[in-house]
Amino acid sequence: MIIVLEQNATKEQTDHIVEALEAKGVQVHYSKGVDKTILGLIGNKQTLLQIPVQRFAGVEKVVHVSEPFKLASRSFHPEPSRISVRGIEIGNGSPVMMAGPCSVESREQILQSAHAVKKAGGHILRGGAFKPRSSPYSFQGLGEEGLKLLAEAREETGLPIISEVMDPENLDLVAEYVDILQLGARNMQNFHLLKKIGRTNKPVMLKRGLSATIEEWLMSAEYILSEGNPNVILCERGIRTFETHTRNTLDLSAVPIIKHLSHLPIIVDPSHGTGVCRYVAPMSRAAIAAGADGLMVEIHPKPEEALSDGPQSLTLENFHGLMDDLASLQVMGFSNR
C-alpha cells in the first residue's frame, strides 16, 4: 500500500500518520519526489486494510500496489534512484563504465589495469578478491591481499572500487575496503547475506541469478531495501538458456523492463553475458542503446595468461578502442581523459 500525501501536507501531519501506522506494527518508508511525497507501507495485508488511512489529515489518496516488490517498485518511488559513489553518480542518465580484471592476481596486474581504466575514461575499477568458481580446484582469489591491492590501485588512480562479497562472514572485511559491494549471480537468493547487506548503507550491485526471472531478481533487491539500505544497483549478466555458442544469453530486454517496473539503476555485464571477448563491444553498444545506466567489462593486460575468465576479457588496447567507439557514438560522457 502507498499513501500519496497532499502537496501542502505539514510535517506534523506526516509525523502523526507515521506514528499511528508504526504503532500498528506497520513499516513505513518515506520517499520525497519533486511533485509528490509518498509513504510506502509494509505489513500484514489484513492489518493494512483495517487502518482508516484515507481519514488522516494530509492524505491525498491511497494506492494499493499489486507488485510483490514494494520498495523496488516505481509506484513507490516514481523518480529514478541515483546512487552516489565517491562523487560518481549512477542512474543520472550518463552511463558509467566499471572495468577491470575478473580476479586480482598480482600488484603489477591490477595497477596496470587500473591505470588503463583511468586513461581510457572509465569510472570505477572492478576486481575479484574472493572468487566463487564452479570447480574447487580453480583459482579462488587472493582474499584480503587482493582487497589491499585494490585499495592501493584506488589510491594511485582515484577510481572507486567494486569487489564481490561471497558470504556473511567476510562481509565486514570486504566492506572495509571497497566502495561498492558486488553480490554475484550465485548469491542472488542468499537471503541471509541480502539481509545483512541491507543493514549496511554501502552501495551494492546485485547481479541477476543464472536462471532468475526479473520478478525474482527484484524480490532479492527488496530484501536489501526492506532492511534500510536504499543504495541498490541491478546488473544484468546473462541467464542460462539452451544456447551454447555463448556462455550465457544476455537478456537486454531486462533493461527497459526494469526501467518500467523499478526506480533502481541497472547496468549490463556483456563479458559474463557472452563469455566471448569479440562479442563484448557490440553488446556494450546495444546495452547503452537499450538505456542501461552503465557497463561492467572485464579487461586484462594478458588475457591468454588470466587465471580466470581470460576468453571473455578485453586487452587493454581493445578496451581503449571500445571506449573510443562508445564516445564516438556520443552515448557516453567520458570527458576525464
From TrEMBL:
SUPFAM superfamilies: Aldolase (SSF51569). One of its GO terms (biological process) is aromatic amino acid family biosynthetic process. InterPro entries: Aldolase_TIM, Class-I_DAHP_synthase, DAHP1/KDSA, DAHP_snth_FXD, DAHP_syn_2. It comes from the Bacteria. Keywords: Transferase. GO terms for molecular function: aldehyde-lyase activity; transferase activity. Pfam families: DAHP_snth_FXD, DAHP_synth_1. Residues 1-67 form the DAHP synthase ferredoxin-like domain. Residues 87-320 form the DAHP synthetase I/KDSA domain. The keyword Lipid metabolism does not apply. Gene3D superfamilies: Aldolase class I, Phospho-2-dehydro-3-deoxyheptonate aldolase, domain 1. NCBIfam families: DAHP_synth_Bsub, PRK08673.1, PRK12595.1. This is 3-deoxy-D-arabinoheptulosonate-7-phosphate synthase.
